[in-house]
Amino acid sequence: MKCIFFDVDNTLFPTAEFAELARRNAIRAMVEAGLDASEGELYKGLHRLIREKGSNYSNHFDILLKRMGVRRPARYVAAAVAAYHNTKSSIQPYPEVPKTLMELKKRGYRLYVATNGDAVKQWDKLIRMGIHLFFDDVFVSGEMGEEKSPSFFRRVLAQVKARPSECVMVGDRMDSDILPAQKLGIRTVRVMQGPYSREKGKADFRIRKFSELPAVVRKL
Q1: pLDDT tens figures, 110-124
Q2: Which residue segment(s) compose the domain that 211 sits in?
Q3: Domain with 150 in it: what CATH number?
Q4: Is 34 left (phi over 0), alpha (psi -120 to 50) or beta?
């Protein structure tokens, strides 16, 4: 076993918890800036937009205020964006992540990120968490031109010059982390934390604490 690939969201850090906090801070900031609306009303409208447009859409606040008929929304959008980005200062990985990554590097494994999303946003998370230097390379769907799939992993393996049997994929989601890797013959470890932990499906191993990973990789 030579290479270990990691998803980012809800694998290396609690994305769902951070996103909820950032959105609520953004909503509060708009109200504090003078927007005549309740936090509950804004929260519901924002979540409808996220379901429609996806979490990586960049103009949620603009569309939200437009739908509410707000004239001259720039002040409120600026307040929301500032609050959202200020929340990023609280980004931290799961507590056991840095120590575990360090242990895996010391044992000679090559560590990589393989994740869906916008490349700049995913790099931003890794840098803010202070763990980006652990990884030999970072592969993001937005930069690769396709989301994680057997084709995605085939291209990644060609770049890192490794065979599927030499690699492990570590992630929290069956649909985007485990199944695409399994179809190519990559071994899989599922991290049972975050909002997708109740999804049905089977990986080669399941872990509830990130610190269990080195022992699992030894077994593989």
Answers
A1: 999 999 999 998 999
A2: 3-13+92-219
A3: 3.40.50.1000
A4: left
The number of C-alpha atoms within 13 Å of 141 and in the hemisphere containing its C-beta is: 14
Residue range 67-103, pLDDT digits in tens: 999 999 999 999 999 999 899 888 899 999 999 999 9
Q: How many domains does the chain have?
A: 2
Summarised one tens digit per residue, pLDDT across range 16-68 is 889 899 999 999 999 999 999 999 999 999 999 999 988 778 899 999 999 99
In this structure, the answer to whether residues 41 and 118 fall within a common structural domain is no
CATH of the domain at 32: 1.10.150.520
